[in-house]
Amino acid sequence: MSDYSYHNATVESAVDAQTEKAIKDIHTSLPAKVIDFNSTLQTVTLAAQVKQILIDGKTVQIPPLMDVPVNFPRGGGFAVTFPLQAGDEGIAIFSERCIDGWHTSGKATEPLDYRFCDLSDAMFIPGICSRPNTIKGFFTDGLSLQTLDGSTFIRITNGKILIKGEIEQNGGFVSSADVVASGISLTNHVHGGVSSGGSKTSGPQ
């Protein structure tokens, strides 16, 4: 403790000092930036964005967090994926116990090490960001799946889906209602220049 003195130590102050020291070795979560992303293993190398304070008051950068599994929303046979780039922000959370056995096998295992809330057992949730990196022009009227600059998006509001950007479709298209392209109805358009024989019609109107 800051007011702890070797010359007037008591049992209580000694216990308090040891407790404070132990608490400082417990890690719960830290903001972090991506250094490198492995898309095959879906792991990242991270740089913690809050420095560590030493006993003498000096601050040091926490060593890079290696082989950190990334959270991508998934379940029921579906997943939402996106590439991560160096500099992307998020939060690193630290498991209560060693995750090495589970991470390697995908099964429930005994902890392979006795460490608790250790920097070695980080998991990464991308997206939580600092104020300078907030999403510009935040869409508040519904759900938006978009590029950060807003140049391309899929936006869902009550009863409507709006898409901005080129669409490449691989598969059929079924519509229970009319389709209108450049102001021309697929169901109700007409063709001019119709005559018998092998002549072709003019374009739709």
TrEMBL record:
Q: Which Gene3D superfamilies match?
A: Gp5 N-terminal domain
Superkingdom? Bacteria
What's a Pfam family in this record? Gp138_N
Which positions carry the signal peptide feature in this UniProt record? Answer: none
* The Phage protein Gp138 N-terminal domain, residue ranges: 30-127
Report the protein name in the record.
Answer: Phage protein Gp138 N-terminal domain-containing protein
The record lists the organism as Pelistega indica
